[in-house]
Amino acid sequence: MSLNIIIDKIRNAINSFSMLNKDDTVLVGFSGGKDSVVLLHALNSLADEYKISVTALHVNHNIRGEEAKRDLLFCESFCKDNNIDFLSADVDAVGFSNKNGIGLEEGARILRYNAFKDACTDKNIKKIATAHTSSDNLETVLFNLARGCSLSGTKGIPPVRDNIIRPLIYCSTDEILEYAEYYNLKYVTDSTNSDTNYSRNRIRHNVVTELKKINPSLEEAVSNMCDSIRRDLDYIASCIDSNRNYTTEELASLHPSLLSRILIGMYENSTDNGSLGSVHLLNMSELVCSYVKNDCKEVKKLSLPNKIDFVITPEKVYFEKQTQEKSLNKRNLSFGLTEFEETGDALFISENKKDIEYVTSKNVYKISTHTIVKKSALDGTIIRGRIAGDVFVFSNMTKKVKKMLNEAKVPLSKRDILPLICDKDGIIWIPGFPVRDDARTNDTTSTAYIYYLTQETDL
User: Among 76, 114, 206, 389, which is least packed by CB within 10 angstroms?
Assistant: First the structure.
């Protein structure tokens, strides 16, 4: 392949997606790897043609120790030699990922893009260019397919997203290497690129290698597919309005494809980050349809990623930020009504089954669930919220509480505020589940009735 074809592919991407305007300032994400070196060199070479200026930003994620320091020095030297403005940022990807309970790759990506945005604000830079290639796009599509994506997952990496542009999106790894060799460009290699413990590396080294035996032009074929899917999705998007206030009945009457896309749009309008998985869309769609079908009159909620609630009422559906996370304080168990000021729920315990009628007639509570236990089993017990590692023993089984709540589809907003009745041996009862084996009643024991009460919908 000639160099002219590679340059033409870069120009094609820039022109087809209107990536650059006259007098744009472009910030190039510059890791020092082959892709970012070629991107920086190519944009700098095309600067006069497109009448733009180029600045490089290197982000040190503090993951690879001395190797990361080597990369920083290389990038600084490369920019100095090529008379390119150079910036650097230092972030703690490990600490950030651990604090937020996310994977290291995802944490590093978030911090990297935050650094890009900060640099653009500080330097009044218009565009951000990243070095994603058609090979990266191929890996992304395969990765999404392996996870079970929707149609949106097969459209790959967007050539343009907001002010982020990807001029190399039509260039393969082989073409990048050819460009670097032609201009004798040096670059650094990330040692983790060969670590097949990372999913993308396994795809790159194992899956792609086999698929290219079937079609050597695999990257180009998938790029064409992504362009086609992107056009179709853009058309579908033009047919809906996620900013419109739909009634619950209107949403339930829509084709499932349109309903899903409207819900996605409404969710994205409610949060700056976060994404919905197929299970979230399925749960919301099913709730909308069953809500109307059953002529439901209650307000119901589903907890979604990024601390967003999906709320459905007889009149409308909407998304809202979750209020501050609730937790249940530990306290001693006592007979009668115990109200939890932290959550607005309550627990009622009595030896007389009919007592609950008086409680519910005088209060705003509804009965969520109840059980019967041996009265003696409640001696020396406490009420608390769940804690990490909790297990529950019943029916001669030992199960993790987290897994039980997942399987029972208990809403996320409820899981940390359920009152667990415990003694020195562990959990006796969790609302919505059987009692521990040794707390079961029989013909010779005195019994106690336990009611979990709430002002919201049932579990």
Answer: 389
Rg (CA), the chain: 29
Average pLDDT over all residues of the chain: 88
Q: pLDDT digit string (tens) for 23-61?
A: 999 999 999 999 999 999 999 999 999 999 999 999 999
Strand order in the sheet with 85-90: 85-90, 53-60, 25-29, 127-129, 164-165, 160-161
Domains of the chain by range and CATH? Answer: 3-235 (3.40.50.620), 240-321 (3.30.465), 331-454 (no CATH)
CA distance 429 to 382: 11
Of the candidates 335, 259, 321, 339, the one whose C-alpha atom is nearest the C-alpha of residue 292 is: 259
Close Cβ partners of 248 (under 8 Å, ≥ 6 residues apart): 288, 291, 292, 312, 313, 314, 315, 316, 317
Q: Looking at the predicted structure, is the pLDDT value of residue 365 above 70?
A: no
Q: What is the mean pLDDT of residues 80-109?
A: 89
Distance between CA atoms of residues 308 and 304, nearest Å: 5
Q: How far is 340 from 346, CA to CA, in rounded Å?
A: 5
d(CA 322, CA 93): 26
pLDDT at residue 88 is higher than 90: yes
Average the pLDDT over 313-318 and give the result.
90
Spatial separation of the C-alpha atoms in residues 278 and 284, rounded to whole Å: 10
Enumerate long-range contacts of 388-396, CB under 8 Å, 24 or more apart. 390/420, 390/427, 391/426, 391/427, 392/426, 392/427, 392/430, 392/433, 392/436, 393/426, 393/427, 393/436, 393/437, 394/433, 394/434, 394/435, 394/436, 394/437, 395/434, 395/437, 396/437
Q: What percent of the chain has pLDDT over 70?
A: 93
Q: How far apart are CA 92 and CA 61, in angstroms?
A: 6
The one-letter code for the residue type at 233 is: L
Model confidence, pTM? 0.63
Residues 44/84, Cβ–Cβ less than 8 Å: yes
Q: Which residue has the tokens 């000639």?
A: 2
